[in-house]
Amino acid sequence: MSAQTATSQFRNALVARRDELIALTQALIRIPTLNPPGHHYGDICDFLAERLRPRGFECQLLRAAGTPGDCADYPRWNLIARHHGGGLPTSERSGFGALANADCVHFNSHIDVVEVGAGWTVDPFGGDLVNDRIYGRGSCDMKGGLAASIIACEAFIDTFPDYTGAIEISATGDEESGGYGGVAWLAEQGWFDSQRVQHIIIPEPLNKDRVCLGHRGVWWAEIETHGRIAHGSMPFLGDCAVRHMSAVINAMEETLFPDLKTRHTAMPVVPVEARQSTLNINSVHGGQAQPPDDFTGWPSAVVPDSCRMIIDRRFLIEEDLDSVKSDMRALLESVKDSRDGFRYTITDMHEVIPSMTSRDAPVVTTVSAAIEQVLGKTPDYVVSPGTYDQKHIDRIGHMKNCIAYGPGILELAHQPDEYVGVQDMLDSAEVMGLSLLSLLHN
Ligand SMILES: [Zn+2]
Question: pTM for the full model?
Answer without folding.
Answer: 0.90
